[in-house]
């Protein structure tokens, strides 16, 4: 098996432009729609949208590698860094803060130079204790001399999906990558550059661990440079997580192919478009929530009522499955059934809630989205 990095023409990538025109055009069209919608957001709404996207990006870029983070801890870290309220949220661990810091640095400072030192600092931030699980790893340094392979399957019957270049080639490969990165920001179509950067970095695999997360941070940085926006309003990692099997399959096939990476770029552009479409739904939900509170801004509610209403708004049209019932309200608000029924009735009277069509014991309520 010859890997792409073993070929004499690596890394002079090629692609069939005629096979990318349609997906590139669709990606740019949906990107334009999203950016137009974002322009309608005020500063506070922009921060809220950015926070939700960053939370998803943090959770999903870790999940792709099999690391499950606590959503409340991630929300706490994001809120702290964006200057948003974090009352009642648990303190985030150092590894959560580190990942959030990397993602924010890649996008908030997209116009700063990419250097080996910066890449190493990102990797060190991902592993503040120097351990990946129970295994001690090199942090803030290129990987050691041991061969690096991506494998799956039981011990003794492993399947090798990919083998990275030898460690003595890493420093030169990264310096060539950075030189290409700087030139590409001027010479290449922005979305294609992001796709090539992701593929090239993940193939070099310069660290013992964290390569996937850093590759996705670099992709976000390339996209921020393309859009000239320091805030992200879509989560590419969330979409990759949903298509993880396809992601790994097309990556493996391309890494075992020649330098024509049309297949990879076509998949990447399609994934990007779907990520942007997903975000349009989130932005629409945030706008709808803002319009709702503008309509009811002068109406007095207690903290329990406001908490429940916000949960319904976050759930979007349709709300909770089966609607809001007195039992659900009691559970969320931590009140007696009598108090819960009284506070729901008050919300109906104040036109926050609408009673669903039902009879008997199955009484439920949903948000009154429109007057």
Question: What does the model show?
Answer:
- The chain is mainly alpha-helical and 371 residues long.
- The chain has 2 domains: 284 residues, Orthogonal Bundle (Fic-like fold); 69 residues, Orthogonal Bundle (Arc Repressor Mutant, subunit A), CATH 1.10.10.
- Helix content is 58%, strand content 5%.
- It contains 14 helices and 6 strands.
- It has a two-stranded antiparallel ribbon with strand order 1-2. Strands 3-4 form a two-stranded antiparallel ribbon.
- Helix 2 crosses helix 4, helix 4 runs parallel beside helix 8 and helix 13 packs across helix 14.
- The longest helix has 34 residues.
CATH superfamily of the largest domain: Fido-like domain
* Spatial shape: elongated
Portion of residues in beta strands equals 5-15%
- Please give the CATH class of the largest domain: Mainly Alpha
CATH topology of the largest domain, which one? Fic-like fold
**Structural class of the secondary structure composition?**
mainly alpha
Largest sheet: 2 strands, antiparallel
Task: Name the helix and strand elements from N-terminus to C-terminus, one letter apiece.
Answer: HHHHHEEEEHHHHHHHHHEE
What low-confidence regions span 5 or more consecutive residues with pLDDT below 50? Answer: none
Order of strands side by side in the largest beta sheet?
A: 1-2
Radius of gyration: 24 Å
Number of strands: 6
Count of spatially separate domains: 2
The helix fraction, in percent, is: 55-70%
Number of helices: 14
């Amino acid at each position: 098996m010859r890997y792409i990095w073993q070929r004499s023409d690596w890394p002079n990538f090629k692609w069939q432009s005629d096979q990318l025109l349609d997906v590139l055009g669709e990606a740019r069209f949906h990107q334009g729609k999203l950016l137009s919608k974002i322009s309608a957001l005020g500063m506070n709404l922009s921060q809220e949208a950015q926070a939700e996207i960053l939370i998803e990006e943090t959770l999903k870029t870790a999940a792709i590698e099999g690391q499950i983070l606590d959503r409340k801890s991630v929300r706490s870290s994001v809120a702290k860094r964006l200057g948003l309220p974090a009352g009642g949220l648990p303190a985030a661990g150092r590894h959560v803060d580190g990942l959030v810091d990397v993602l924010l640095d890649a996008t908030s400072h997209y116009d700063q130079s990419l250097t080996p030192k910066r890449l190493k600092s990102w990797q060190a931030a991902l592993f503040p204790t120097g351990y990946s699980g129970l295994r001690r790893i090199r942090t803030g340094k290129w990987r050691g001399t041991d061969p690096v392979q991506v494998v799956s399957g039981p011990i003794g019957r492993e399947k090798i999906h990919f083998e990275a270049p030898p460690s003595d080639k890493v420093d030169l490969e990264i310096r060539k990558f950075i030189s290409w990165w700087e030139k590409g920001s001027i010479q290449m179509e922005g979305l294609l550059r992001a796709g090539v950067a992701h593929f090239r970095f993940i193939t070099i695999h310069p660290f013992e661990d964290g390569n996937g997360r850093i590759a996705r941070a670099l992709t976000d940085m390339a996209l921020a440079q393309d859009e000239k926006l320091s805030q992200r309003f879509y989560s590419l990692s969330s979409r990759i997580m949903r298509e993880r099997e396809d992601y790994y399959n097309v990556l493996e096939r391309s890494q075992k192919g020649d330098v024509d990476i049309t297949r990879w770029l076509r998949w990447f552009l399609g994934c990007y478009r779907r990520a942007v479409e997903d975000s349009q739904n989130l932005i629409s939900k945030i706008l709808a929530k803002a319009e709702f509170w503008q309509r009811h801004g002068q109406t007095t509610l207690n903290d329990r009522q406001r908490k429940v209403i916000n949960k319904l708004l976050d759930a979007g049209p349709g709300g909770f499955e089966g609607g809001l019932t007195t039992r659900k309200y009691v559970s969320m608000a931590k009140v007696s059934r009598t108090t819960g029924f009284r506070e729901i009735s008050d919300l109906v009277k104040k036109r926050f809630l609408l009673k669903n069509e039902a009879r008997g014991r199955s009484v439920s309520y949903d948000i009154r989205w429109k007057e």
